[in-house]
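Please decode residue identities from the backbone states below.
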């Protein structure tokens, strides 16, 4: 069906009113794929932006643009290995947090950036004694450009508030991944590997006294472990970053706490452990 501009705008408004959060195609799209030229055909649907970006001059016929054809264009190991090297170099070259934020903005080696609206770097006070590291931005964070501002972020603020910590006063907040995974899916192992040098450098430059690993993905990524958060939570660990040894507390993700209210007793115990550590060190 050929829609005119006003109809397209009406349709978009309808989708927004209906709370549609993500624009998905009928077919799965591999955002790591090497660009494929859109096929020229009279009834062709609007090409996906990912495919449109760098069309090759030799467009295949419409019938040839099958999922198998798209998959054949992918060389994940080549692009992703290169990206991992680039992220490490870029991160290491950043001498301040501002430079690191700019380096992340300029980095195109992680496919998540293509579908995200914002690069979500941090919120709070970068010199704070405590740094929280979560997983990845969600829809609200992608919209606002700040970590943990949605429902789970509000719960996290409330939980930290009970021991006198706040992002306006004495907390620094970041994620292991700076771009929202489409549809809020979990970040892949490759995405986590590519982005890891950035969060390590962010921790090194912020130099917090204590790190709270918010959720299983953050804990597993930074502690290099396969152990789940249910076993890890509440048990102090250490991270060796930039020549410093930093105590790190694995902590339930607030989104999990929202789904499983029975975890609140454990959360309270972990908050008390965090407060105790802070008081002991001050
Ligand atoms: N969940 C996270 O792990 N981080 C955010 O910033 C938001 C939700």
């Amino acid at each position: 069906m050929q829609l005119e501009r006003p109809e397209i705008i009406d349709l978009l408004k309808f989708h927004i009113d209906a709370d549609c959060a993500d624009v998905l195609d009928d077919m799965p799209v591999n955002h790591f794929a090497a660009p494929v030229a859109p096929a020229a055909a009279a009834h062709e649907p609007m090409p996906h932006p990912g495919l449109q970006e760098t069309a090759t001059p030799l467009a295949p016929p419409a019938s040839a643009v099958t999922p198998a054809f798209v998959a054949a264009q992918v060389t994940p190991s080549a692009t992703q290995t290169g990206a991992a090297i680039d992220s490490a170099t870029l991160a290491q070259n950043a001498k301040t947090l501002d430079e690191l934020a700019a380096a992340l903005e300029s980095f195109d080696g992680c496919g998540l950036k293509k579908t995200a609206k914002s690069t979500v770097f941090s919120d709070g006070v970068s010199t704070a004694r405590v740094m929280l590291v979560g997983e990845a931005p969600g829809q609200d964070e992608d919209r606002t450009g700040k970590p943990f501002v949605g429902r789970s972020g509000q719960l996290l603020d409330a939980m930290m508030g009970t021991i006198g910590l706040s992002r306006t006063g004495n907390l620094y907040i970041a994620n292991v991944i700076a771009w929202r995974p489409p549809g809020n899916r979990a970040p892949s192992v490759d995405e986590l590997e590519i982005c890891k040098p950035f969060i390590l450098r962010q921790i090194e430059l912020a130099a917090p006294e204590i790190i709270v690993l918010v959720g299983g993905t953050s804990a597993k990524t930074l502690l290099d472990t396969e152990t789940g958060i249910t076993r890890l939570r509440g048990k102090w660990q250490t991270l060796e970053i930039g020549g410093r040894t930093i105590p790190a507390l694995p902590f339930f993700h607030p989104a999990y706490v929202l789904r499983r209210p029975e975890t609140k007793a454990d959360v309270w115990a972990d908050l008390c452990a965090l407060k105790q550590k802070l008081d002991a060190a001050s």
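Observation: The chain is about 45% helix and 10% strand.
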